[in-house]
Structures are given as C-alpha cells and as structure tokens.
Q: What sequence folds into this?
C-alpha cells in the first residue's frame, strides 16, 4: 500500500465483517500491531472500531476485546443489539453498525487524506464513492481468498486500492506473544 509522508489517515473497522473474514481465513489479528503499522506510515488521526453488543448477557465474549481496544488507542463505537422474532417465529438478534460507520466516515472525510476501511460489505460502495469525491483516497482491507469471497466486487472496484488481509500476517497477524485478550 502506498503512503505519502505526513498524510492524515483514519481507520474504520466494521467489527463483525472483519471478525467473519479473519475467522474464515484462520487469521488472528494483533490490533496493537495493526494500529502501529498505520501510525508508523502516516499521521494516524483516528482508529474507529464499530460493533454491536448484547447488553443483557451476563458475559459477552466480545467484551474483553472491546475493553482492550478502548484502552489501547481505538475509538469504540458500539450500540446494543436488538432482539426480534422473524415471520417464521424464530428469535433473531440484529446489530448493524453501517449507518454509524457511514456518518462518521463522511464527517471525517474533511480532515483526512486517506481512509482505510476494514470491510467487504458492498453496501459501502456508495460511501466510498462519496468520500472519494471529497478528494480522499480509500483503501479497503478484506479477502478474496475465502469461499465465498468476503469482499463485494463492487466495493473492491470502487476502492483506490485493495489489501488482501491474508497477505498481512507479517504486518499485523498475531503471534503467541500478544498481550491482547483472545477475541471471539
């Protein structure tokens, strides 16, 4: 990925999408190394992580990760999940963070030169296009090596550059010596 000296950069992580991608690849992310990787190559203004949390649960396997990220340089954007019953009578849990991510990215576009989006969600294609019209370069991080591919083709084509996350093990894959708690 191409960085320019002094460029202002922001990271936007779609937590559930990144988790699903990493799990499909058996790729364990070291979030400390990930943040450091971008901070060493640019002027990192913000690293946002978006996830929905089950508030009623006594213990959420996501809580240790959320707490760790919050204390280690990430801005956490969370909201409680909503429980509903679908038309077949099955209990479902919903916690989409797309709107929050989109609003924050549009607001941040005026202050950065480069945005890195960790998501393969095709719903973000128009968002990426809108940010690009403001003069911001957008890099998307996801994977084509899963079955099916975790990156929507239209999002990959819209991005200025694409990073295959499975190729980033040396940069921010996690080894045995990490100080971060296991994530679900």
A:
């Amino acid at each position: 990925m191409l960085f320019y000296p002094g460029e202002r950069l922001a990271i936007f992580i779609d937590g559930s999408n990144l988790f699903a991608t990493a799990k499909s690849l058996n790729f364990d992310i070291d979030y400390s190394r990930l943040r450091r990787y971008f901070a060493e190559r640019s002027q990192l203004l913000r690293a946002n992580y978006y996830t929905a949390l089950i508030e009623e649960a006594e213990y959420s396997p996501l809580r240790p990760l959320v707490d760790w990220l919050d204390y280690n340089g990430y801005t956490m954007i969370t909201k409680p999940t909503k429980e509903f019953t679908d038309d077949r009578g099955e209990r479902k849990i919903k916690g989409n963070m797309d709107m929050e991510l989109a609003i924050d990215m549009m607001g941040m576009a005026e202050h950065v030169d480069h945005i890195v989006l960790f998501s393969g969600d095709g719903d973000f294609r128009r968002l990426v296009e809108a940010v690009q019209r403001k003069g911001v370069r957008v890099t998307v991080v996801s994977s084509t090596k899963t079955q099916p591919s975790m990156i929507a083709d239209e999002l990959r084509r819209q991005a200025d550059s694409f990073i295959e996350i499975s190729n980033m093990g040396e940069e921010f894959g996690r080894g045995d010596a990490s100080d971060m708690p296991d994530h679900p």
User: Anything to note?
Assistant: The domain at 8-84+91-172 is CATH 3.40.50.1010 (Rossmann fold). The chain has one domain: 8-84+91-172. The first strand starts at residue 8 and ends at 14.
